[in-house]
Amino acid sequence: MAPEQTDPSKDGGPAEVWALGLLAFRMLTGKPYWLSAGDAGATDEALRREVLSGALAPASARAKELGCGERLPTGFDVFFARCVVREAERRFGDVGDAQRVLAAVLDGNPMDPEAVAALPSARARGPVETTGLAHGTKPVELAKPAGQPPKARRGDRRHHLRPPGAPDAAAENADAEGGATFPSGAPPVGLAQRGSAPPGQKRRSAAWMGFVAATVLGLGLVSAAGFAGYTFFGRERITDTPCGQGALSLIGTLKSPVTVTLYTTKGLPKLDKLAGDVSVMMRDIEKASKGKLVYKLVVVTNPEQRSEAIEAGVTESAFGDSGTDHATATILRGFCGMALTYGSEKEAIPVLAPEAAQGIPFWIVQKVRELRGRADDAFQRFGVVSGKDEIKLTEPNLMPAQPGRGAGPNMKGIFTQAMPYYKLDEVDLRGGEAEIDGDLAGLVVTQPGLDFTDKELRRIDQYLMRGNKSVVVIASAVNVKAGDHTMQGELSLHGLDRLLAGYGIEMRKDALLDWGRSVSFPTFTPSGAGTLLRAPGLLTVEHDNAAAEKDQALDSTFIPFFRLDELIFPFASSLATHPEKQPDARFRIVARSSPGATAETASPVALRPTTDPTPRGAQAQHVIAVAVDGKLKSAFAGQPGDGVSAPAAAPESSRLFVLSSSQFLANPLARAGNPPPTPTDAMAAVPPGDEDLGILAQAYAQRYLTASIVAFKNTLDWAGADDATVSCSALLISEKRD
Q: 3-140: which CATH architecture?
């Protein structure tokens, strides 16, 4: 992505120009412009720094440095300099101008540099809704000198999951999107445009929320095809897979047919292949849906079809493809996206990336769920306990505060915008006077700031004892206040331990510091020497293929963590299990610290990242997440108290999931580094935010938030027993380690 895309309010045409310049460089030289992108040993942070602040060498100089200087034609430097410049307002005013200059360079008749400089800039044109080339414009052929195909990168820096000989999508995407490799190695599928919104409408009020949602959904979910290194198309019929069967089950609940239309442009082999693969899949589903799904394919060949695609919410985009002989490459501006209609409701997947084809079934299920939810009022409602000074899902704690830009994104906002079929309703226990709604699909308890009364705990137990219910506790003993730049953790369980103990889970009053695996950030000393800022309170929990089950840190076969290789558990407390208290239930330990963790039991606990951490106490591996399911016994032995009664045991299987991390659903560095909440005294001054924590919070968000939000989404699917979504989520990254 272009540098300004970290601020979606500045997104637009200039970002497309940036991407075109980098893509052209890659196709002509066979190598990424960014040095870090071509270095298998480079870190993601090194790549980020290079994109945001590294020297922008002229294209010819960089190509010479990479050993391929002879491959760039005369005049390319002038074109590249107007594309790849960090100040967006200095780039070409729109991508059409950039493409015309590039075409002249490739034809051997480059425009005069002064003429290129005189072309309108983004600043001169002002905000522009770019629609790209007019229909019928020919693809740009990037002729490469004869010789060896470009060398693949030496490996995938993130997970080393690309099988030998598989295409290196991550390196290609690093160029196409401005150098930032995606978390899973494949480009995003765009977020849907709502049917009620005019095409291209800017939603400035949701800019930060949209940025995080796009990061999470586009990069974390749909791009998970990069994990597997193959697409399922042609391997087996979709209707024979658990995902297909789950999708058909969902489609079978519809009251009328849903229409799915694929809009595509012919001319690139990989787009043509994708359209064929998708059509095979969709026709299989159509045939098995008993009339509940209608599939259409529209090949855009005229202005009327182009207008139809845009009106449906499909975005005209630039697609690149290299020839089979690696001697030529083509850039084509066209369509590859889906529109879905159900009754009067509409949804769209604006862009389908060929490299992420494996995510398409997931997105179809997601969009059908959303359409059904709006048209048939069929949502999954989850309760979130409130009234306990808890960390709210509406708290803007995911990104560092941006002065003058209003509140940042929050967890509930992301789900409301991108996954509105989940309804997250606050449940105020009101001291235990209110019974919890039995129609809720599940109940979520986030980190409290006030103690629970026995009557409130009994209400939670009463809900779980209804049977076929789920309770998710995402909390620990570690309490760090919002806006506390010192990040001092006070230890208090707020009474949750009394409830959990009855279910056989002991939550201890401690704070885990992991000296074996925790978050760290590269930094520099005043003398310029490199060093690390370490945050042992932010536990890095990783799946290890070689680990024995009793030692496995992250059970990635567990639905909430399914196929996730790494998660961060901020401010965790240790757990212990006592299965004898629940003889008819199954206990499953699903997350552990490293063996190098210590347990701090004295308040306060210093949790701010430091360059000089000092381990204290005995080191050991600790349990930090446990799931229990079965016919649970009441935490209060079924004995009435405070006027609240519950059966001695649930009549049907119920489920409890305890994730012992107080800020798993937040960015702990943003929450501590942002200005404190506005004081009730209107005359009191609001202290500024902590700049250093803000910088670290940005890095944390880019690297870790995707997995955290995906895990929470999966947790809701687990709690609601949604088989269709769970099975399609699994397909996204199936065979990742097979």
A: Orthogonal Bundle (1.10)
